[in-house]
Design a protein that fits this description.
The structure is a single chain. The protein has helices at 18-32, 45-55, 81-86, 97-102, 107-119, 132-136, 140-151, 181-199, 201-204, 220-224, 241-248, and strands spanning 7-11, 38-42, 61-64, 91-94, 123-128, 164-167, 208-212, 231-234. By secondary structure, the chain is of the alpha/beta class. It has a domain at 67-240: Aldolase class I (TIM Barrel). The protein starts with 6 loop residues before the first strand and ends with a helix. Bound molecules: phosphoenolpyruvate.
């Protein structure tokens, strides 16, 4: 099996203005030298430019939390992939459950955004995950695999590095309730199997699949010990530099 470089991505949501972003990176950058995994931060749009200036040359990556699929046009309030390229952003989170829940994101818009991000060379971090009700009804795998399939409708990939998945059970996001490592592995293993049906075994082994949902320094090691978990998308615990450092350096 091919080794996948772990990725730890901080989803800052609607937190951290420009000054707070710069202060965070001033504290985090010296610590980052000891981390062998890949690190990415996804600040609000207004802090992207300042973050890009700050991380230049550090090897740390930058991501946005959303984008439109069109490259320009009359879409008031939206941000295009070309604007993200200009920053430059390496990643963009697509289909986060908060966007699906509060901003009418659908499997169809997720699919359009995934195609557009790949076209412009921005790696989408595609979020999928079931609600508590769906889990309790035993529908977890069918819901999640359906989201995966729809996100990838007519999506062509080259080498498996063109996209990342994040399995984020909705009931675990911001609640303090983390999925057990074996439950997370079960779903993430099933996602990889679906990817192997869609793109073949070799490419599926190269695609990184993250876990997200109440990740903390105390639970990351066990999650990372699972064979198919390749890192984490971290919300609340990514807002503090020391805490995020502890998560990203789980192996040390
Ligand atoms: C998220 O929103 O992507 C997330 C994982 O949040 P938290 O870590 O706060 O549960």
């Amino acid at each position: 099996m091919m080794a996948r470089t772990p990725l730890f991505a901080g989803n800052w949501k609607m937190h951290k203005n420009v000054k707070e972003t710069v202060d965070f990176l001033d504290a985090f950058l010296p610590m980052a030298k000891g981390i062998s995994s890949e690190i990415a931060f996804c600040p609000p749009f207004t802090s992207l430019w300042a973050a890009a200036e700050k991380i230049r040359g550090s090897g740390i990556k930058l991501g946005a939390q959303n984008m439109h699929w069109e490259d320009k046009g009359a879409f008031t309030g939206e941000i295009s992939p070309l604007m993200l390229k200009e920053i430059p952003c390496d990643y963009v989170i697509i289909g986060h459950s908060e966007r699906r829940q509060y901003f009418a994101e659908t499997d169809e818009t997720v699919n359009k955004k995934v195609k557009s991000a790949i076209k412009y060379g921005i790696t989408p971090i595609i979020c999928v995950g079931e609600s508590l009700e769906q889990r309790e009804k035993g529908k977890t795998l069918s819901v999640v695999l359906n989201q995966v399939e729809k996100a990838l409708f007519e999506v062509e990939i080259k080498d498996g590095c063109d996209l990342v998945f994040a399995y984020e059970p909705i009931w675990a996001i911001g609640t303090g309730k983390v999925a057990s490592p074996s439950d997370a592995q079960e779903v993430i293993g099933a996602i990889r199997k679906k990817l192997s049906q869609l793109y073949g075994e070799k490419l599926s082994q190269r695609i990184r699949i993250l876990y997200g949902g109440s990740v903390k320094p105390e639970n990351i090691k066990e999650l990372m010990a699972q064979p198919d978990i390749d890192g984490a998308l971290v919300g609340g615990a990514s807002l503090d530099a020391k805490t995020f450092y502890k998560i990203a350096s789980y192996e040390s």
